[in-house]
Design brief:
The chain is α/β, with parallel strands linked by helices. It is built from 11 helices and 7 strands. The termini are far apart.
Amino acid sequence: MDYAEKISTHYGHGNLLTAIEAGLEAQGIKAENASVEDLGPVDEFHIGGRSASAHFLNQLGIMPSHSILDVGCGLGGSARFAAKTYGARVVGVDLTPEYVETGKALCDWVGLSDRVELHQGSALSLPFEAECFDGAFMMHVGMNIQDKRTLIAEVSRVLKPGAKFGIYDIMKTNDEELIYPVPWATTSETSWLTGPKDYRAAFEAGGFAVVEENNRREFAMDFFKKMKATGDAAGGPPPLGLHVLMQQSSAEKIPNMVANLAENRISPIEMIAVKGA
């Protein structure tokens, strides 16, 4: 099994669309009547969910006339949110076939198949022409990619000059070893965390200037605190949430991630960069 297959297998579910449909039905929602908001708890696979997406994407200046690339789109939740919120056309690419196929069905459910297009493929070899996008974003993807410079160079290739590229990734903030498993990796074998300094260097090598950087650790800690309190009060998780994606492993992965955050080993960090002429 090569590295790409290991990553795809890690994220694979096996029956994801059915699980999401069951979660909706438990709330009295039929799939064909689902909204982008209804799907938010399960299809925004990053710290902070929909709230984090709004904070992050609002910094990118996305316009209705724009064609935007979502790198590592997962189920396409952020792509659908961006298309609905800003009126843009959004194209997503992800390594995991089940995520892409499930995401396409979710686009059909919410009536966004005409504005959101999802592809299976690698972020290191994007299946698009040069300078065809007005902007790009990537959320919690770089943790599984060792070669950050090739990643950012490839995104640079498909962006128009002056376009913004936003990254919201979990980054290393001290030299301590992480506790595994975590949502993006079962062991360190498929985890390629690095610090903000290395991201900045990769941006510079790719012809970008970083114009904004935000450490969202306090937001993340508060997010998980509220999530735990809500779950405790309800006697368990809601019908839809990240536990649907991670299944039984969420009971170990999420507490481990919170422990890593609490010890300041990691932090979710936003970086906004602009491609030079």
